[in-house]
Amino acid sequence: MASGKALEGGNASTDSVSVAQSPSASTDPYDTPEDRALLRKIDINLLPVLTTLYLLSFLDRSNIGNAKYQDINVIGANYNTSLALYFVGYVLFEIPANVTIPRSLKRFNPRIWLPLLTLTWGIVSVCQGLIHNQAGLFAVRFFLGVTEAGLCTKCIHRTIFVFSMYYRRSERHFRVAIFFGGAAVAGAFGGALAYGIGRMDGVGGKRGWAWIFILEGLLTIVISLFAFFITPDWSHSASFLTEKERARLLERLSADSDAGQQESFRWDLVRSALTDHLVWAYAFLFHGFAFVLYSLSLFLPSIIAGLGFASWKAQLMTVPPYAVAAASIWIVAVIAARYKRRAVFIILSALVGILGYIILIATKTAGRQYVGVFLAAAGVYTGNALLLSWPGENVSGQTKRAVAVAMQISIGDIGAIAGVLVYRPSLSAHRFRTPHIISIGYLVFGALVAAYLWAAMARQNRLRAAARQSADANLAEKQPSSYDDSEERLIQGDRHISYTYQV
Asked: Per the record, where are the segments of Polar residues compositional bias (predicted)?
């Protein structure tokens, strides 16, 4: 094995890539007290506003699950069809929109396009409350998916890109997990809000379900307008940082990632992503978890109502499981960040979710089954929070990474389509026993894919460590080596021996 060559076959990843420096000392030169103070300052300015925007986007996407129990005029499996159409629109436009990320994101200020994205979702959500028939609902749900993919792609993609302009690779997944916790908070908030808004049934001649869409959409619109003034800018021009802090931030990023590099779009970089087995594994990992994420978030009121509770109680009883899920995300994110491990916690989250579904299937009393709901929500949401930023940290090169993230979400959302179609009236017998069994199968699949990624990347890390040791020995003997050749690093990207995967 040549020390300067990639350890895996395939195309070079990019001509400007993220390269993790191999640790040569026991201490991290970018983890000083000053660095930690800088990170706290960034956290305070980024996380609250971005998490709030994602909370609103997830609320607008999933509130149809609450509206269903306010007597929305959708018959039988047509409800499932309306849910699936959202994901169809999203998947069709996701990859074409996402491959332009390296160019489009740097062309537009995040202070403009993140609030603009949220504003657009709010407008489409309001339109859901103005429909008069099933065809109208189908059209609005489809265009909600198109809007998320086609206007600016998904909020989480754009936000992860912003995170890459502020945080090193090892620092991102904790922040992304905190950010994704907004989805669980949205579920808790949405259940309580839907119960209150549903009592407006008949006001202004509109049904309660229509007011859920209208008022929650208006809330999104109002907050998005405020967000134009408080959303952070790019790191090199962030007004909340001093010149000294900006210089230190850019120094930290330059030693770790490709955030500041300029990269031209090339089709061979797209092909590099499409031929990378790890990229496909990230996609199938989310496919397994997306099935349970969206089926649970969109059918939780139905699942709880199936335990024997009245519809208004089912709305309120969705709040505690979501609150526990949010707490679980944040606690596990702290632990995972401390031990710098990802795969093991994704697998454990899948096991917790599986246990929850087993309790739902095997027990007979509503109280015990409700405990199963708590475990399922905690496991499903925590696993998703940990896996979503994984390719963003382990795939180098902006174009390749953009395609990898697009593949992850698009293939994942195919799982979401399956999930919302499986939880249909014809399969609701015995409290959705058959759909719950299928959910267990998807979680098992997700856990196996996470284990594959763990084993494959750990093996590569060991091989590269050995290759680096050999290259260092050659240097000590004054033999030529391309191990530390910067141009070689840029060409090979995440396949260079100096690149260490985050496992």
From this structure: 11-29
Residue 341 CA to residue 454 CA, distance in Å, equals: 10
- Rounded Cα gap, residues 20 and 416, in angstroms: 33
Which residue range forms the structural domain that includes residue 361? Answer: 33-235+264-495
pLDDT in tens, 221-271: 999 999 988 888 776 677 889 999 999 998 888 777 665 565 666 777 788
User: If you search the block for the tokens 């840029």, which residue do you land on?
Assistant: 490
CA 137, 141, 147 angle in degrees (round to 5)?
Answer: 140
Percentage with pLDDT > 70 across the chain: 81
Asked whether residue 392 is domain-assigned, the answer is: yes
Whether residue 145 lies inside any domain: the answer is yes
Amino acid at 411: I
- DSSP-derived letter for residue 26 is S
Length of the chain: 503
As to burial, measured by CB atoms within 10 angstroms (0-12 exposed, 13-18 middle, 19+ buried), residue 462 is: exposed
Helices (H), strands (E): how many in the chain? Answer: 20, 0
Residue 134 lies in a domain: yes
Angstrom distance (rounded) from CA 285 to CA 132:
38
Q: Which residues contact 359 (CB under 8 A, 6 or more apart)?
A: 368, 369, 371, 372, 375
pLDDT band at 288 (very low <50, low <70, confident <90, very high): very high
Structure confidence by residue, pLDDT tens digits, 293-344: 999 998 998 899 888 887 677 888 999 999 999 999 999 999 998 888 999 9
Distance CA 260, CA 294 (A): 35
Helices 208-230 + 169-198 axis angle, to 10: 140
d(CA 95, CA 85): 17
Identify the CATH number of the domain in which residue 121 sits: 1.20.1250.20
Q: How many domains does the chain divide into? A: 1
Residue 304's identity, in one-letter code, is I
Lowest pLDDT segment from 3-7, 255-259, 262-266, 371-375: 3-7
Residue 187 has pLDDT above 50, yes or no: yes
Residue in the block written with tokens 């260079």 = 496
Reported as type and span, the H/E element at residue 251 is helix 243-254
Alpha-helix residue ranges (DSSP H) falling in 388-428 = 390-394, 398-422
Q: Please give the helix or strand (H or E) that residue 5 lies within, else none.
A: none
Query: Given its phi and psi angles, is residue 206 left (phi above 0), alpha (psi -120 to 50 degrees) or beta?
Result: beta
How many CB atoms neighbour CB 195 within 10 A?
23
DSSP SS3 for 495: helix
